[in-house]
Amino acid sequence: MSNSLQLIEQNDFAYSAQCQKTSHLQMSFGNVSLMMTPKEFSLLKKHVQDTLINIKDIRCPHCRDIFIKTSVTNMSFLFSYDELCHMHDIMVNTLTMLEVQSILDKKE
Q: Least enclosed by CB within 10 Å: which of 15, 24, 44, 105?
C-alpha cells in the first residue's frame, strides 16, 4: 500500500483504502487491486449488492461460480458467495465511514 493510502476497512478477504491526495478508493481482494473514484466505487457496490440480492440458489458458498462483469470488454471477476459477501461488507462499511468523515469534516 502506498504512503498516500489510508486504510479504511479490512476483513479476511479484502481491504479498502483511500488515497489522501486524490480521494480515490482502492479495493483489493485476492490478487486484484482496483483504484476507483468514489462514484465508480458506489456503482460497483450497487452491482455487487444487486448480484447478491438476485442469487437464487447457493449450491456451495465456497465455489467460485458468481461472475461480476466489468466495464472492460471480456473481463469479469469470479467470486464464491462467501467472498462476494465479504467484499460487499467491506464496501458498505467503507461508504459508511466516508459518510461519517464527511459529516465530521462539515462540523469543523
A: 105
